[in-house]
């Protein structure tokens, strides 16, 4: 935690170190809640409306009422950014089911907690960001859509955390989760892309990936740049055989991949990655520079 980190908690702005919620909140007891991660660039929240829209849909899917409207949340985030002592950073928005009894039934949870944190976030070290991240294929599978739809950005990340622990134990940067059928889903907190024969490929979200906002932008940028794009199921072999591979996410931004299960990826960073990274930076500059 950065000492300048701030928290907007149910309408009150305070230092993150001073923010607290009851320990019987079902967000803590059961991971019952939803969240978003948003980047601040040039003191502006990047693609804020997209993130708020996804938060609202995640909350609706788990039958959770967000106690504030989108305008209130936008104002709260602006208040946090104005008070936050940095040009760039990361915002975490969380809505928990709120305090209740020890049983899992959310019926008695009457007051959701609305928590917004402004801090810094770094997903991988600078060397991996520049020279490429090393990945493993995790033995932990992505939860199936008929268990928990991957489009819901819930506080339940335990299988992603187990995959990350596996990556830590293997001494690498990140893990790829497969779906129950053994096809590629996504990283622990990022979407995955490959390039093969100058064509950009990523799995459809129905394969077990979050509908990433960075993923969506990268697909748009690739099309605009005249790069052939295919959203199609991918196997582990496709990752090993890739000419290029990279990860996308709000926290991750764009990270080139150097190896997967110790198989070196063709080029890292490759030319398509570089082009998309440049175009991504241009969009950020256009939307967030005053
Ligand atoms: N997948 C998962 C599981 C994530 O947590 C994230 C981060 N939000 C992503 C993908 C990337 O999504 P986005 O680009 O919207 O941050």
UniProtKB/TrEMBL annotation:
Q: PROSITE patterns, from UniProt? A: AA_TRANSFER_CLASS_4 (PS00770)
| Organism phylogeny | Bacteria, Pseudomonadati, Pseudomonadota, Gammaproteobacteria, Methylococcales
Q: Which GO terms describe its cellular component?
A: cytosol
What is the organism of origin for this protein?
A: Methylomonas methanica (strain DSM 25384 / MC09)
In Swiss-Prot or TrEMBL terms, this protein is called Branched-chain-amino-acid aminotransferase
Instruction: Spell out the Gene3D superfamilies in the cross-references.
Output: 3.30.470.10, D-amino Acid Aminotransferase, subunit A, domain 2 (3.20.10.10)
Q: What keywords sit in the KW lines?
A: Amino-acid biosynthesis, Aminotransferase, Branched-chain amino acid biosynthesis, Folate biosynthesis, Pyridoxal phosphate, Transferase
Q: Which cofactor does this sequence's record say it needs?
A: pyridoxal 5'-phosphate
Biological process terms from the Gene Ontology for this record are: folic acid biosynthetic process; isoleucine biosynthetic process; L-leucine biosynthetic process; L-valine biosynthetic process
């Amino acid at each position: 935690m950065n000492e300048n980190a701030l928290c907007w908690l149910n309408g009150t702005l305070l230092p993150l170190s001073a923010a607290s919620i009851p320990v019987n909140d079902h967000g803590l007891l059961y991971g019952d809640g939803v969240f978003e991660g948003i980047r601040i660039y040039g003191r502006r929240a990047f693609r804020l409306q997209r993130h708020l829209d996804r938060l609202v849909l995640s909350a609706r899917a788990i039958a959770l009422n967000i106690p504030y409207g989108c305008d209130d949340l936008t104002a709260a985030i602006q208040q946090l950014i104005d008070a936050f002592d940095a040009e760039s950073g990361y915002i975490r928005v969380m809505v928990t089911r709120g305090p209740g009894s020890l049983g899992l039934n959310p019926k008695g949870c009457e007051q959701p907690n609305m928590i917004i944190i402004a801090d810094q976030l770094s997903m991988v070290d600078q060397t991996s960001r520049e020279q490429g991240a090393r990945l493993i294929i995790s033995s932990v599978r992505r939860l199936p859509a008929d268990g928990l739809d991957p489009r819901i950005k819930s506080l339940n990340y335990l299988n992603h955390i187990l995959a990350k622990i596996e990556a830590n134990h293997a001494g690498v940067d990140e893990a790829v989760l497969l779906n129950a059928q053994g096809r590629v889903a996504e990283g622990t907190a990022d979407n995955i892309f490959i390039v093969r024969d100058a064509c950009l490929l990523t799995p459809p979200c129905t394969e077990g990936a979050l509908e990433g906002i960075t993923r969506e932008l990268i697909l748009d940028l690739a099309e605009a740049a005249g790069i052939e794009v295919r959203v199609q199921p991918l196997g582990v072999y496709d990752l090993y055989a890739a000419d290029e591979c990279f990860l996308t996410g709000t926290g991750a931004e764009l990270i080139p991949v150097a190896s997967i299960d110790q198989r070196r990826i063709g080029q890292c960073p490759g030319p398509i990655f570089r082009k998309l990274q440049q175009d991504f930076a241009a969009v950020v500059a256009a939307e967030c520079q005053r």
